[in-house]
Amino acid sequence: MSRPKKKTMTRLPRSPRGKAGGKAGKAGGKAGRQRRASPQAGRQRPASRQTGRKVKFQVPKGTFDILPNEQNYYERVSGVTKQLVSAYGFLPINTPIFEDVQLFEKGTGATTDVIQKEMYTFKTKGGDYFVLRPEFTPSIVRAYIEHGMKSWPQPVKLYSIGPIFRHEKPQAGRFRQFHQFNLEIIGEASPINDVLLIQLVTLIFKKLGIKGFNIQVNSIGCSDCRSDYKKLLIDYYRKQRRKLCRHCRERLKLNPLRLLDCKEEKCRQLANNAPQVIDYLCEECHNHFKEVLETLDELDIPYLLNPYLVRGLDYYTRTVFEFRLEDDSLLELAGGGRYDRLIELLGGKPTPAVGVAAGIERIISVLKSQDIKIPREVPPRIFLVHLGELGRKRSLKLFEELRNKGLKVAETLSKTSIKSQLKAADKSGAKIALILGQKEALENNIIIRDMKSGVQETVSIERVVSGVKKRLKK
RNA sequence: GUGCUCAUAGCUUAAAGGUAAAGCUCCGUUCUGUGGAAGCGGCGAUACGGGUUCGAUUCCCGUUGAGCACCCCA
Description:
alpha+beta; BirA Bifunctional Protein, domain 2; Rossmann fold; 2 domains; 38% helix; disordered N terminus; RNA-binding
């Protein structure tokens, strides 16, 4: 009987785990055993804090090590992102990974889940109350205000790539420390900016080779039209309160907009007949949204208008959008929207802005499940083998000379036997080995060995660089 | 945070209420100036704590961690 592939594998293949994308699919043996999902390859066993003897340290829950053989995925995603967004005039910015708690309580919104349930907060010895950033935007806005970027040419286009922290229950595709790339366009109200961000994320995904994702857009209006709409919505739902699920009755009090994307069948039916935001947009919001959609059409970017799309952060106004996988996981890869009031809210002058964030681990999991190969760094082509004390000393010097000439060389200086060194050379995939022994060192010669054919030639040490280069070209 | 499922070496798997087995990897060696093959050997595990039992890695409970669903989100 063949082992059933884990359901998640097709949609959320192990993130980074080393050899693994493929292998991980086998997890869950016949006993249904589950393997750890986090990205890293090996990991330590859980710690016993009592005994003090068998203590083994492990990564904190929901976090993971990114081992060497995973790095190329991260480099690929951030590389493609940097390349594309800088071509579109985005400038890099780094902000601290922790900030004053109030920045997020105010910015992200005190009623949001992110703030209510998921913050990593800590008090410092000095009495400061900080939080590991649960998202980028408030930090970027803080920096915009703090450094007077309003006097830079507008709009200010900024990008960041880095870790984000949310104290959530981990699941596949959901971690407590993960990475995002984040784009913000601050200082200009034009809908072209909303579209630019959607386009950039699309371009990045396409360049990475990701298939099968869709873009959903909606407008939730400005505070004016939304508050009118909210009243209507609350009226509508109040009348049918009994038909709502338990959660939705809570939502009705706290965050009525969220009623719209409840997944309960009953609630969905109610939502279908509920008033839709886009029908109640004020004229300006309506025009803004219309132009967003028209521009998307003009650019041939396919999108789904989802009138029930509501995002979880308080600061959004007008345009909101999401990138999701089209399989049944519906995994959200990126999300964003306009936040025209946030700068003001955080103490700046009223300034329009729009932003987007994408989850790097989720993107990587898609790269793996879609079997998209990442170009690997080429291994060293040359392996330096030494023999005897003199050979060893000289080889270190030679190593630097070769490196200096732009050749990528590998070695195992710690090994002494020629056998184990050639074995290592073989494993490294090197095309040629340079053998520097006692005899060669004394005669100022070196042996060039073709690893494939085994053919060797002794050349004078001065000619080693040209000899190597000649052979590498073949 | 709630519910369900799960946990054997670095990886992939096996067995069993009575000393836990193998393949891959790694290291060494046969072969101290020549790798890839082969042989031999070595390292290395029942996540942690407790209970039942003559005996638990196996059964039970708790903890930790993971997977799934919900919640929410990147």
